[in-house]
Amino acid sequence: MKQGPFNNIQLIECPRDAMQGWPHFIATGDKIRYLNSLLEVGFHTLDFGSFVSPKAIPQMADTNEVINALNYSQDSKTKLLSIVANTRGAEEAIRYKQIKYLGFPFSISPSFQMRNTHSTLEQSLETVEQMQLLCEQNEKELVIYLSMGFGNPYGDDYSLDLLFKWTKEMVDRGIGIISLADTIGLASPSQIQIALEQLIPAYPTTVIGVHLHAQSNNWKNKLEAAINAGCKRIDGAIKGIGGCPMAQEDLVGNMDSLLTIAYLQENKLLDPINESALLRSIQIANEIFQ
Q: Domains along the chain?
């Protein structure tokens, strides 16, 4: 897969994840202003919105309006990703030329899959196959998030072998990008490193990334574990805001992109970014996330 503006690491910014669980509605104009600023920073991908039921995620009800107002061109270094929860959402997302990636959360926890998409794992696997076909027919790329990839709070069975099983199921269906999602922030650094050290060499033509949730006392150990294992795709959100509102009441925020950027710059793993655009983005984030 062609590397993006960050030669060594594909950094994925997830304002959608930051916004979706925010307690009050963020004005559409503020979303547009924030996303346009983020588009200038130089991220590999911007997870900007989602085509899901507004009853389930009211914050994303204006995604159609938002995408039509973005200062985006097909030559942009930063590509757009939209989350979808079912085939209907995928059919809506593929209508937009601006969108390169469709992201689908496939939970290896049956309880969370039912909570998140109201479907069983078997039904969700069929949905993956339908979405993959839609993407192939419409020059899009499907990104699968293996949610609850490091455990779950529901008592469902979990093991690394189960994570490996579902990763293989996705690779066998032609999925080129798989992100291991630490949905509620319970992954240990050793879990992250062991999983990636086995999966990355096992599937060299598949991009295996991480969507980690972390706190101030463990973000660095988690990030280092992923990088040391050879991970080249890392999700995050400015200020570490976010968390899936469908998972549990107490949300653990995203990996803070600002901490990730500083760490990668310090270790010379990051190409130059638009620092002024980043500062503008931080200022807007401070305004809208209060």
A: 10-288 (3.20.20.70)
* DSSP 8-state symbol, 7: S
Residue 58: pLDDT above 50? Answer: yes
The conformational region for residue 42 under phi > 0 = left, psi -120 to 50 = alpha, else beta, is left
Residues 148-171: pLDDT tens digits? Answer: 999 999 999 999 999 999 999 999
The tokens for 223 are 């990030």
Structure tokens at 22: 């925010």
Whether 148 contacts 182, CB under 8 Å: no
Instruction: List the alpha helices (DSSP H) in the chain.
Output: 15-20, 28-39, 63-68, 87-93, 110-117, 121-137, 160-172, 189-202, 219-228, 257-266, 275-288
Query: Residue 4 and residue 1: Cα distance in Å, rounded?
Result: 9
Instruction: Tell me which residue of 50, 24, 41 sits closest to 282, measured CA to CA.
Output: 41
Query: What distance in Å separates the CA atoms of residue 79 and residue 51, rounded to the nearest whole number?
Result: 17
d(CA 251, CA 59): 16
List the beta bridge partners of residue 151: 149
Record the tokens describing residue 131, joined without a space: 């979405």
Radius of gyration (C-alpha) of the chain in whole angstroms: 17
pLDDT tens per residue, range 200-234 = 999 999 999 999 999 889 999 999 999 999 999 99
Token pair of 72, please? 């985006």
Residues 6+ apart with CB under 8 A from 36: 70, 71
CB 82 within 8 A of CB 101: yes
For residues 275 and 252, what is the distance between their CA atoms, to the nearest angstrom?
27
Q: Which residue has the tokens 């085939």?
A: 87
Residue 252: Cβ within 10 Å count? 20
